[in-house]
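Long-time lurker. I teach an intro course on protein structure, and each term I like to show students one example going from raw sequence to a predicted 3D structure in token notation. This year I'd like something fresh instead of my usual example. Would anyone be willing to generate the tokens for the chain below so I can use it in lecture? Attribution to the forum is fine with me.
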Amino acid sequence: MPPNLEAVIGLYKNSPTVCRSYDPRAPELAQQIGEMISAHLPTVTVEHIGSTAVEGCAGKGIVDLMILYPDGQLEAVKALLDALGFQRQTTRDPFPEERPMRVGSLEYQGTAFQLHAHVISANSPEAVELREFRDRLRADPTLRAAYGARKREIIEAGVTDPIDYSVAKGRFVEEVLSSAK
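-- Reply from a regular --
Happy to contribute to a lecture. Here you go:
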């Protein structure tokens, strides 16, 4: 990693959860960040996951990246993300440092996008599940609409804490993935 690497990622702003319409700029931004990471660590793979990776899918509007690293590269990925300006989570129940998530923001075409960088071992079953759920949403408009409706129901029920919201929508994800088996 170059010693003169400039931090380009801005501060993450913790805020109550809302459900936004799909923004077609999110995949473009995800690709740019992925290329930036891969340019410094070519052994990792960066994939865009989550609702912003699925055309037409409503969600929080946070751009989720899955950074898949080969054995022995976890510390290098964390160091690169730190150098780029990503931050550790400051909410309750942060991901453990053995499977970290870093947060940040980046201004893109006039909008400050919030970012989640999920750092996952390339051979982790979690990577398979995240990819499978994203791909099922991409392929099934009915499932995509049901997922958006479920997220709006959760928020309308008053669940806006990001952790509580994630747990509530996680049940939907688990049901979808278990139905595929």
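Some talking points for your students: The chain has one domain: 25-179. Residues 25-179 form a domain with the Beta Polymerase; domain 2 fold (CATH 3.30.460.10).
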